[in-house]
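2024-03-11 09:14:02 DEBUG pipeline.ingest accepted 1 chain
2024-03-11 09:14:02 DEBUG pipeline.ingest length=289
2024-03-11 09:14:03 DEBUG pipeline.predict start
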Amino acid sequence: MSDRDWFFFSAVGLALIAGLVFAGSINHERQRTGHYESAKEQYDGAHERVAPSAAVRQSLIADVESYRQEWREEQDLFAQRDMAKWAWLMMLASFAGVSITAVGVVFVAQTLVATRDAVAAANRTADEAKRIGEAQTRGYLSCERGKLYIHEKTIWFELSLMNRGQSPLIADTVTASFFLIHDFTQLGTWSPTGRYSSISAGETSFCRLHIMKANVGEENTTLMESDAARVALHVNFTWRDVFGTEMWASYVLLQKAPPALEAVDEVIVRAAQLEATCIAAYWGEQKDT
């Protein structure tokens, strides 16, 4: 049985006890009044049947006065006892009322706590439903592959992007850096620049990054064009979804094979495939720091 049930039954029990005590007091008062009325009737009947003489009458009058005085004192005593009894009953009634009021306050407090918890739970449910709805609807940027182009004076990275979400993503910034790996050694780091455009849901777009060959150096460029070195590109994207949340994603793409001659826009260049490594691709929401 819960504490709430114990409080309820305790309050009802106190109310029943107070009612029984009150009813017993009223019954006792009725019995006492009935005894007095019976004695008075017997006295009045005996007085009417006997015709006393003057001396006897005088004695009877004195007896009656004495009886009346004693009766008054007895009535005063009964009245005082009744006052004390009623005061005690009023104390019990007040105690019962205070107890019932306390139980009611406890019930109200429990109701308010339960209401507050229910409102908090409803708010958490609404927030979680909103978060799930946004997660199901927002746009997600994916970059799985790309190409490396080595022109006469410029090195280009062309990355294939796709929005795998259910709503457009609004392009923001892209930053990148690449380095060469030769004989298990990293040969410098360079930062190409570029941009990409907003992408509709389910659509594919491209991000183009470039850097001048002079910034990389002739020796390093020669290694890029040969089978002696591999290129690793680390690229970071930021964008906003339709809810205004800033998102980011980071990918690492590795060169699969040395560049080979390929025609691009009617120009023969060296081109190599780039493929994103799964363990290095991740994304999340932008956090304020």
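2024-03-11 09:14:41 DEBUG pipeline.report Residues 278-283 have pLDDT under 50 and may be disordered.
2024-03-11 09:14:41 DEBUG pipeline.predict end
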